[in-house]
Design goal:
Layout (H helix, E strand, L loop, with lengths): L2 H4 L3 H8 L11 H12 L6 E5 L7 H8 L4 E6 L2 H13 L5 E5 L12 E7 L8 H10 L1 E15 L1 H11 L19 H10 L2 E15 L2 H9 L4 H4 L7 H11 L10 E14 L1 H4 L6
Parallel strand pairs: 1-2, 1-4, 2-3, 4-5
Antiparallel strand pairs: 5-7, 6-7
Pfam families: Methyltransf_11
Keywords: Methyltransferase, Transferase
Protein name: Methyltransferase domain-containing protein
Amino acid sequence: MTSSERSNGTVDVFEQAATSYDRTGVSFFGPFGAELVRRAGIRPGARVLDVGCGRGAVLFPAAEATGPTGRVTGTDLAPAMVALTAEDATRAGLTHVDIRMGDAQQPDFPAGSFDVVLAGLVVFLLPEPEQALRAYARLLRPAGRVAISTFGAMDPAFVAAMDALARHLPADQPRPAPTDDPFADDQTVTATMAAAGLTVTAISQHRVESRFRDVDHWMEWMWSHGARALLRHIPAELLDAATTDAARALAPARLPGGGLALITTIRVTVAVPSPAAACPNDPS
């Protein structure tokens, strides 16, 4: 989250969600964070930055990968996220982990500070993702790399349920204007990275099945993360009807024995500074 987003309430959304974020018993952020770290190829002793660290889905696997000889710094703009994740790190005895307030759009560190910069499910939230990626590249040491995760295909039942909820928003509530997605597919991701001075070395996809006891559990999970931004604008007197409509939309995700299962795909992209960007003054 960035200071630019504070004015439109994004930081407040995650601030309010912090205590339950990734704490509702649903397998989602954890597996995605672990996969991003695995694909980043972090080695023991590495210096790592995790932007938009939230409650540590990427940060803690990164700390395990670096080991105590390394250093992992996590940043977030939601004070509660920073405080709670710092408490978790202290409780776990991770003295090589540092969590602080920081802007994922404009990380404030000296050039060449890190071997790896990680951004788990965050760059698409930023007002200027290309500029942010360029900033990440600047922070890399020689042979360093940037690794990001972005959403791929969403479960059709989830998309339908989100649409069902959105139909209960007040008529005067602004809807997001359609925009070109700079992370829509492998080609656009590669182009976005190239525009930021980064060369993609690997793109992979990872699917996770998330299970829910029932629709109420799904709604509890929805309130615990960024979907809160939509839910909080639905009038309280319409929430029950909205939940009922979402439940109908989720019917294809129902399991024979009860509960729900949704499949989400992420795209993990690893990139390194392009030669021209790394050596702008090279006459060759």
